[in-house]
Amino acid sequence: MTRQEVFDGLKEVISVIRPNTDLTDVTFDTPLTTGLGIDSLTMMLLSLAAEEKFKMRFPDNAPLPKTVGEVCDAVLAALGA
């Protein structure tokens, strides 16, 4: 799976968790908190939804990602890519 494929899938996840979010300007560098308005509860929902979508698990001790690209990288790392 490529980083772009993860990015596209992650945008699908975000559209479900934050349905009123305009994803047209979302990039790898978009901050999760200030760019997408994701708070700690929404981050947990995002993590769970990403794990389900990509059939993987984030490590328990992993630092919280700050950007969409960092989430993509974390998914790829968990997939062993």
Class based on secondary structure composition and strand pairing: mainly alpha
Q: List the total number of helices.
A: 4
Radius of gyration: 11 Å
Query: What percent of residues adopt helix (DSSP H or I)?
Result: 55-70%
User: Would you list the SSEs in sequence order as H and E?
Assistant: HHHH
Summarize the main sheet.
none
Protein topology:
Layout: H1 3-17, H2 32-36, H3 40-54, H4 68-79
Helix pairs in contact: 1-3, 1-4
Structure notes:
The chain is mostly helical. The protein has helices spanning 3-17, 32-36, 40-54, 68-79. The longest helix is centred in the N-terminal third of the chain and has 15 residues, at 3-17. The model has no long low-confidence stretch (mean pLDDT 94).
Task: Give short descriptive properties of this protein.
mainly alpha, globular, 81 residues
Task: Describe what is shown at a glance.
The protein has 81 residues and is mainly alpha-helical. It is built from four helices and no strands.
